[in-house]
Write a structure and sequence with these properties.
alpha/beta, two-stranded antiparallel ribbon, Rossmann fold, 11 strands, binds magnesium ion, 6 helices, binds adenosine-5'-triphosphate
Amino acid sequence: MSDDYSIERVKTGIPGLDELIEGGFPLGDTILIAGKAGTGKSILANQFLYRGAIEYSEPGVLVTLEESPEKIKRNMMRFGMDFGKLEEEGMLAIVDLSPSKEATPVSIGEYPSFDLSGLEAIILNHVKRMKAKRVVIDTLSIMAYKFKSRDILREEFFKLTANITRSGCTLLLTSEIPAQNDGLGVFDIEAFLASGVIVLYNEKISETTRSRSVEVLKLRGSKHSSRIHSMRITDEGIRVWPGEISPGV
Ligand SMILES: Nc1ncnc2c1ncn2[C@@H]1O[C@H](COP(=O)(O)OP(=O)(O)OP(=O)(O)O)[C@@H](O)[C@H]1O
Ligand SMILES: [Mg+2]
């Protein structure tokens, strides 16, 4: 039996972020990237995959439920990140569940026994085939309306995330923080089942200015920063300034 309890870390690929969390995300954990609309959740999650592939030779799987693969590729190219090339090189698989793919819209209650086992099988297939180490689901909570009850949803989200991380991957979920939080939403289930929660902000600091920042809300097993740090979206993607405390929030 091993008595080495040290936690293996996965580099986030976001300059400055690793320094806030003892070197990276704990390997094989589920991390929730949370924030309001437009705070940079998708960019951060995509950059985690891109840098993982380019700098650490770790293949990744991106499950997209909001933006089409074409839009993701176009937007990430602005940062010099060529997702099409990664795909061709077998370093990235994109699972497209974006709305354009859905033939007809569905309404609540249409899926009396909806579950995530089909999605799980697709993801795990890619993971096995590519020996993927990183998985991103952007945004799982979009599926919420398909479940009949909160209990079933919690059970299904838990099974899916547990089985992905059990395969040896580190999993990033993105989620929008609800304006009004009564503690009964999907967000709370996600925040509970994740070992870590990273919150992104883009707050108004004066009449004419907003300021981006990042906070490590929780990270089990880690001595992380408890401050809110400056963050910017530059031409090379997201960057965090570990020594700079945000004036905003
Ligand atoms: N090339 C760029 N340079 C600087 N900032 C950019 C660039 N591209 C996008 N942004 C900023 O990033 C924001 C979008 O980031 P992103 O799509 O990651 O947000 P999100 O948190 O995923 O939003 P949503 O909740 O709508 O999915 C834009 O609203 C814009 O402010
Ligand atoms: Mg997004």
